């Protein structure tokens, strides 16, 4: 065994390890922040991206981590298709159009809904994830002034016409 006293200058010990709650998060909706991401490849050449999230909006679960995998290249075409669609959903949920490096997603927040999925062979259940834009953060609204109110009214009148029309109407 290696002698680690040369690293510490004394016998190792006395470290206090913070207790971490590792129980599963209950199914539900959370606002979460992306902390990290990692591209992984298995022995068969299947590739997936694993994202590490932290819950940020829930007093009971603030700071709790969870991980979500997205299959991007997989021998099982259905798994790959689902993974790519879910990954695209996450990209949209963090308000990005395209991603070439997942690091740009770090520190971004989104709403994550956890839904109980199919049973696992070894017990428990898979978790299905749905991603959406976090609407809990305040958004700056534009003030309506008398200068642009007429334009807004005009747009709304066209919208009203569209809502009352059927798809077979010929507008030519």
Primary descriptors:
alpha+beta, 30% strand, disordered C terminus, 172 residues, globular
How would you sum up this structure, described in words?
It contains 3 helices and 5 strands, in the order H-E-E-E-H-E-E-H. The chain is an alpha+beta fold and 172 residues long. The chain has a 5-stranded antiparallel β-sheet with strand order 3-2-1-4-5, with helices on one face. Strand 1 and strand 2 (47-55) form a beta hairpin. The longest helix has 19 residues, at 146-164. The radius of gyration is 24 Å and the shape is globular. The chain starts with a helix and ends in an 8-residue tail after the last helix. Mean pLDDT is 78; it is low at 138-146 and 155-172.
How many beta strands in the DSSP annotation? Answer: 5
- Which of globular, elongated, flat, extended, rod-shaped describes the shape? globular
The structural class is alpha+beta
What share of residues are in beta strands? 25-35%
Helix fraction bin: 10-25%
Low-confidence stretches: 138-146, 155-172
| Number of distinct helices | 3
Mean pLDDT: 78
| Topology order in helix (H) and strand (E) letters | HEEEHEEH
Largest sheet: 5 strands, antiparallel
Write the layout of secondary structure elements.
Blueprint (H helix, E strand, L loop, with lengths): L4 H4 L19 E14 L5 E9 L9 E9 L3 H17 L15 E11 L5 E8 L13 H19 L8
Antiparallel strand pairs: 1-2, 1-4, 2-3, 4-5
